[in-house]
Amino acid sequence: MTKAVPPVVNGRIDINGIMARIPHRYPILLIDGVEDFVAGESCTGIKNVSANEPIFQGHFPGHPIMPGVLIVEAMAQTSATLVVASMDDVTCDTHVVYFMTIENARFRKPVLPGDQLRMKVRKQRARSSVWRFKGEAFVGNALVAEAVFSAMLVPRDEDEADAD
User: Fold this and answer.
1) For 75-97, how does the pLDDT look when each residue is reduced to its tens digit (9 = 90+)?
2) Nearest to 29, CA basis, from 41, 39, 17, 42
3) Where in the sequence numbering do the catalytic residues fall?
4) Which of 26, 110, 27 is nearest to 68 (CA)?
């Protein structure tokens, strides 16, 4: 029996809807919500950065900064949510989205505990199962990071067959 996937409501996807669409879980689930969802085109992921996150124990003691690679991962998770939520009959139980490439990553300002990180992702193109995105991360109105990246949507049965 397939579990119900929480719907997109008024362009928003809550944490339960995200977890139904992508397989990431604590401590690597890096988005708390999605807003401004436009199927097949764009959305904004929300990450509330907390001082309690384990990464800040070592990055850096006494001067916690969110690692840039995690900002890029948060953009990728936002994009994966966009891809899966844009398709009928696709969930994290049936498909997985694999990060393929990253280009032109730029980190402009540090992201600190207490910040709300907003990842705006927009599809540049989609061909077959491969999607290309432009991502920008903001704290308030300040651009803190940006990148162009691509990902592939793969049915879980193909994914599992490749592992054998």
Assistant:
1) 999 999 999 999 988 999 999 99
2) 17
3) 59
4) 110
